[in-house]
Amino acid sequence: MSNTTNNIMRHGEQQRITLTLNGRERSGHCEPRELLSDFIRHGLGATGTHVGCEHGVCGACTVHVDGVAARSCLMLAVQADGRRIDTVEGLAPEQTLGDLQQAFARHHALQCGFCTAGILMSCADYLQRVPDPSEEQVREMLSGHICRCTGYTPIVAAVLDVAARRQAEAGAKEAEHA
Ligand code: FES
Ligand code: FES
């Protein structure tokens, strides 16, 4: 029998994987066909990540994979083996909301909240790369997400607010050290 045949897994067979979830090493078993979104929720109990369309359209399942926003419904759990995965839970590690989450609350940028975890994760990644975006850029970034409640305007306002506050803080720190 060839090696290729030997390596074929049987239906229902589980594979152990280990990843770093929000800074903590976590392990679990999954089937080779299991989606990362399902593994995060059901295998690791991190249910902050939501699942909507399961085919990459709505953005609800967005997490960070090695620091970059990605749809967890478009990845297999086994592909996350050995990688760093960050979810919305990681934005409030000490049960204290981060600045992005606080801005969403201030601007009423969520209603039912189903889309919110994914949007927050996309915004967190985006603001690292584009710290001072225009409204148009924020709207373009949000076009990868579906929110059926807010009409997007308060979300845009929250993101621009965070960007402006971060810019002001960075400016103040620079002035301090000048
Ligand atoms: S559930 Fe992943 S994009 Fe909709
Ligand atoms: S707040 Fe309900 S879908 Fe966005």
TrEMBL record:
CDD domains, per the entry: fer2
GO MF entries: 2 iron, 2 sulfur cluster binding; metal ion binding; oxidoreductase activity
Keyword vocabulary terms for this entry: 2Fe-2S, Iron, Iron-sulfur, Metal-binding, Oxidoreductase
Record bears the keyword Iron: yes
Listed Pfam families: Fer2, Fer2_2
Annotated 2Fe-2S ferredoxin-type domain residues: 15-91
InterPro entries recorded: 2Fe-2S-bd (IPR002888), 2Fe-2S-bd_dom_sf (IPR036884), 2Fe-2S_ferredoxin-like_sf (IPR036010), 2Fe-2S_ferredoxin-type (IPR001041), 2Fe2S_fd_BS (IPR006058), Beta-grasp_dom_sf (IPR012675), Diverse_Oxidoreductases (IPR051452)
Name used for this protein in its record: 2Fe-2S iron-sulfur cluster binding domain-containing protein
Organism: Caballeronia fortuita
